[in-house]
From TrEMBL:
The keyword Iron applies. It is an enzyme of class 1 (oxidoreductase). InterPro entries: Inositol_oxygenase. It is found in: Cytoplasm. Keywords: Ascorbate biosynthesis, Cytoplasm, Iron, Metal-binding, Oxidoreductase. One of its GO terms (biological process) is inositol catabolic process. This is Inositol oxygenase. Coiled coil: none annotated. Binds 2 iron ions per subunit. SUPFAM superfamilies: HD-domain/PDEase-like. Substrate binds at R50, D107, E108, S109, K149, G166, D167, H244, S245. Its main location: cytoplasm.
Length: 309
């Protein structure tokens, strides 16, 4: 199904200023009188969003995270993970149970967020709901997009952070320089493998992202969960879940030679989504009990009661 976009995809950055006054570091509850979502200029730490070069303690941890991620995500590793997690034999539970479980996950790759993960899910979902009130599938997509991070918990195999979070990129072809902290790819064995280090590598131009192996993490895992459990979430929603961390594509505009026509359509919605995923990260908490009935109704509409994880 193709869903057309009637709203402007991006607001001017100047319009974002007003909201930044809210980002003072104090936690307050959002209420229904808040105006439509305006992306702030600064994150909750008073820095630019996605600033991977700032000098700070937090930044050192993030850089170390990317060093390990870039060294270890290889074609062989991704194949192994896909086979293992494709079995979906780790757990049986509902979507909401997983939302609650996610609170136990800490994301070491994220320079902009140190709130409980369930707040990030609800903050992004509520922000997108205000601006796109009729696209309920988009609200639900936002709610579940990061649930795959549970693979770092012991009961899901306890994968290291570098195999769970962070930006994603294709393996099996050259690592583009737009990847943050690109220099660490030099220590990845695939970097020196001639079958894997050309622009298209093992792929052909316009082969479609579905035929491309992405670095393993919460995006691809959650996509598998959605697909294999027979969710009726539209293809644009499934695409968003699968590629929302693929910043080298959706923000830097690289790797587009691997896309087919369907990918190009879906990418429009990913651009919409990305603004809410990134800029809704704030200290303004959503009242979970108040919004829960609405999201439960969406879960019932698009998912079976229990899912295999
Ligand atoms: O640090 C963040 C975080 O892990 C997000 O969940 C992921 O989607 C981003 O791409 C990543 O950079
Ligand atoms: Fe994510
Ligand atoms: Fe997110």
């Amino acid at each position: 199904m193709t869903i057309s976009i009637e709203k402007p995809m991006f607001e001017e950055v100047s319009a974002f200023q007003k909201k930044s006054e809210n980002n003072t570091g104090d936690i307050r509850m959002a209420n229904e009188h808040d105006e439509a979502f305006l992306a702030p200029e600064m994150n909750a730490f008073g820095r630019q969003f996605r600033d991977y070069d700032a000098e700070s303690e937090r930044q050192k941890g993030v850089e170390e995270f990317y060093r390990l991620q870039h060294i270890n995500q290889t074609v062989d590793f991704v194949k192994k993970m896909r086979a293992e997690y494709g079995k979906l034999d780790k757990m049986v539970m509902s979507i909401w149970e997983c939302c609650e479980l996610l609170n136990e996950v800490v994301d070491e790759s994220d320079p902009d967020l140190d709130e409980p993960q369930i707040q990030h899910l609800l903050q992004s979902a509520e922000a997108i709901r205000k601006d796109y009130p009729n696209e309920d599938w988009l609200h639900l997509t936002a709610l579940i997009h990061d649930l795959g991070k549970v693979i770092t918990l012991p009961q899901f195999g306890g994968l290291p952070q570098w195999a769970t979070v962070g930006d994603t990129f294709p393996v099996g072809c050259a690592f583009d320089e737009s990847n943050v902290h690109h220099k660490y790819f030099l220590e990845n064995p695939d970097f020196h493998n001639q079958a894997y280090n050309t622009k298209s590598g093992i792929y052909t131009e316009e082969c479609g992202l579905n035929n491309v192996m992405m670095s393993w993490g919460h995006d691809d895992y959650m996509y598998l969960v959605v697909k294999e459990n027979g969710s009726t979430l539209p293809s644009a929603g499934q695409f968003i879940i699968r590629y929302h961390s693929f910043y080298p594509l959706h923000t830097a505009g690289e790797y587009t030679h691997l896309m087919n026509e369907e990918d190009k359509e879906n990418l429009k919605w990913l651009h919409v989504f990305n603004k809410y995923d990134l800029y809704s990260k704030s200290k303004v908490h959503v009242d979970i009990e108040k919004v829960k009935p609405y999201y439960m109704s969406l879960i019932r509409k698009y998912f079976p009661e229990n899912l295999r994880w």
